[in-house]
Amino acid sequence: xxxxxxxxxxxxxxxxxxxxxxxxxxxxxxxxxxxxxxxxxxxxxxxxxxxxxxxxxxxxxxxxxxxxxxxxxxxxxxxxxxxxxxxxxxxxxxxxxxxxxxxxxxxxxxxxxxxxxxxxxxxxxxxxxxxxxxxxxxxxxxxxxxxxxxxxxxxxxxxxxxxxxxxxxxxxxxxxxxxxxxxxxxxxxxxxxxxxxxxxxxxxxxxxxxxxxxxxxxxxxxxxxxxxxxxxxxxxxxxxxxxxxxxxxxxxxxxxxxxxxxxxxxxxxxxxxxxxxxxxxxxxxxxxxxxxxxxxxxxxxxxxxxxxxxxxxxxxxxxxxxxxxxxxxxxxxxxxxxxxxxxxxxxxxxxxxxxxxxxxxxxxxxxxxxxxxxxxxxxxxxxxxxxxxxxxxxxxxxxxxxxxxxxxxxxxxxxxxxxxxxxxxxxxxxxxxxxxxxxxxxxxxxxxxxxxxxxxxxxxxxxxxx
Length: 466
Known about the structure:
Helices cover 40% and strands 18% of the residues. It is of the alpha/beta class. A 7-stranded mixed beta sheet has the order 1-2-4-3-5-15-6, sandwiched between helices. Keywords: Hydrolase.
């Protein structure tokens, strides 16, 4: 174990610098050109062979090392979020650029740690002569663009045996939970304008159709699977003049369900609600599929391997100044009671009884073998339908920090975040090495995936053709 950790430590400064550079140039989905260039330069310097334009996407690539043995896939992301610009190291909101982007989900750390794990593992395999192929997947547009879905559909994962990843968060654990399958659907209504007072009978209100669709969706909620979700935004109300019958209006729905087949069935019902609203108002509706993602099929066999790696690596300790900054972030959150109740339930931030509470989680949440149902969504799900996938969570943020907030951005290049990023790389690299050395564990994970799929077809939620 120490020899691989030594490689992680040796390479850590290189990939910490890459993480900070990506944090400083936050780019939105499918526009991550500088982020990709920084990653490719770093991996090429470590001897990886680069393949660009995966699935025809300018910012999707793979980096390969080795020619024989199982293909171990490390998953990387690097896209930012709009409107979350924030200066680093401050516990108060202060944008670097008004209205600018920010890494509110920690993807600058995510991709860098996966690259560090891949590079350290490749160096160790080179030293030992163990046969394996190490591949880093540069995956764009996780934040609503669902880049991995298009990469999966293009066959990018067809020859991989297992996928390994992680995500920044507020606690240390294997991510032993399923996610919800998700689809983005745009409903664009077209009617007929008229004077709302003098000739309302001649008008056909697209805005009425949007509102009636929302009413129908509200009634549909009672008859969906309990874990399913519908979210919507009115993206075009047709105009600001109330004395005009609005000839156009539009809403964007995010539809979620616990299973991929449930999702496709629910999409059909929401589409019917939209058609009914159009029928009631005498308007037309254009339904535009903007992509989505499958639910994650978690793999308990891989979770057990990763959990053992996390146990062996021991406690993640933080320095006094790191804890002080984390406490300042917690103070900025206002009422943290709900977050603390969650921490109490999950063991996120608790030391042994009598030792108080830390603002950064330094322990390890237990893994009992039980798989939980989560409420979020990620395009990692589509990879998990093709190959067994396992992910870690590491405490890069103060307990209670919500993702997609300025507080997450402010912590994104802190020394505590760097420390957690390096630990994540260590966890992933050791998990991979164990699997390479124990091929039966990979076979067990593949058998579990086959059982979880149960013969169900994988039908990706791809965007409609332009």
